[in-house]
TrEMBL record:
GO terms for molecular function: hydrolase activity, acting on ester bonds. It comes from Roseateles aquatilis. This is AB hydrolase-1 domain-containing protein. Residues 114-267 form the AB hydrolase-1 domain. InterPro entries: AB_hydrolase_1 (IPR000073), AB_hydrolase_fold (IPR029058).
């Protein structure tokens, strides 16, 4: 369903744009055709720009930098590129281009695997680049699509649990979770649903996850968007259930140019290790080499004590 919705949206954009340009050309001549076509080509990029510029006026926590204008403009342009790639190709048309990788048991045993969790309104196609590189390195992985796309985050726990159990049964080791945005909350909700056992997960690397909510969620109307409101009961209950017992399992990668999860400090859990990136937008965090390198490092780290 997630991929089908994105395919319909992609088709509408690429069919409606040229069609309206032809109609404009018929009514207003060549300049009308060119003007409407340009609007469909550059309009989405221009529509993204205010989301970055507003970050100049949202003060971060003490000690964190206000994003310089140059960083915001760099982040905006990088984000335009990756958003176009992800929402025009990877997710609508290449969601299943890269299958999960479970090598033969004799190769997989003792080789820690990775579960990849996407964020809001995305699907597993987001991770195509990661999946190709993990397969090249012989690292087992499962990337899930969390559905229903706009349902409760708690409803994603069973599919996460299946992926975690499959990889652990196949390799003999608890997997690493790498999660973008809402996916980090899915990971936390899953761990709560199974009682926070220390032997079910190795580490959790979150990329731009709204651990403490995001101001943008106040505009959301879907159930999972409302759950990402910082003053909402869902996030507050999640934190109470955890009681700060296992933040040492987390690495939080974030940036001060994130136009979706802000203020910047909302993407960091107290007690977690933190990696801060400059001039990177929200989706760009997935494509950042430092994110993949951190995941490789975490795969090699020793297991934490069960008493942690």
């Amino acid at each position: 369903m997630n991929g089908r919705l994105q395919r319909l949206s992609s088709l509408f954009r690429w069919i409606a744009g040229p069609l309206l340009a032809v109609l404009a050309g018929w009514h207003w001549g060549p300049w009308g055709f060119v003007g409407v076509l340009l609007l469909f080509v550059v309009g989405p990029a221009l529509a993204m720009l205010p989301g970055f510029l507003i970050l100049r006026f949202i003060p971060p926590a003490p000690g964190l930098p206000v994003a310089p204008m140059g960083d915001l403009l760099q982040a905006w342009w990088r984000e335009v590129v990756v958003v176009t790639r992800v929402f025009s190709w990877q997710q609508p048309w290449a969601e299943h281009q890269e299958p999960d990788y479970l090598p033969p048991p004799e190769q997989a045993r003792g080789r820690r695997g990775v579960v990849l969790l996407h964020g809001y309104s995305c699907n597993r196609g987001l991770w195509n680049g990661w999946m190709r590189e993990l397969r090249r390195r012989g690292i087992p992985f499962i990337a899930v699509t969390q559905e229903p796309a706009f349902g409760s985050i708690d409803r994603y726990a069973p599919v996460v649990d299946r992926a975690m159990r499959t990889l652990q049964d196949h390799t003999g080791l608890p997997p690493l979770i790498v999660a973008h945005s809402m996916g980090g909350l899915s990971a936390r909700a899953w761990w709560r649903s199974v009682g926070h056992p220390q032997d079910r997960v190795h580490r959790i690397l979150t990329l731009g996850t709204p651990h403490h909510g995001t101001l943008l969620a106040r505009l959301g109307t879907t159930e999972n968007a409302k759950q990402m409101r910082g003053d909402g009961e869902w996030l507050n209950q999640l934190a109470r259930d955890e009681a700060g017992r296992w933040a040492d399992h987390f690495d939080c990668l974030y940036g001060h140019c994130d136009q979706i999860v802000f203020p910047a400090e909302t993407a960091v859990l107290p007690g977690a290790r933190v990696l801060h990136l400059r001039a990177r937008g929200h989706l760009q965090l997935v494509f950042e080499p430092q994110a993949f390198e951190r995941a490789l490092t975490l795969l090699e780290e020793p297991a934490l004590s069960r008493a942690a």
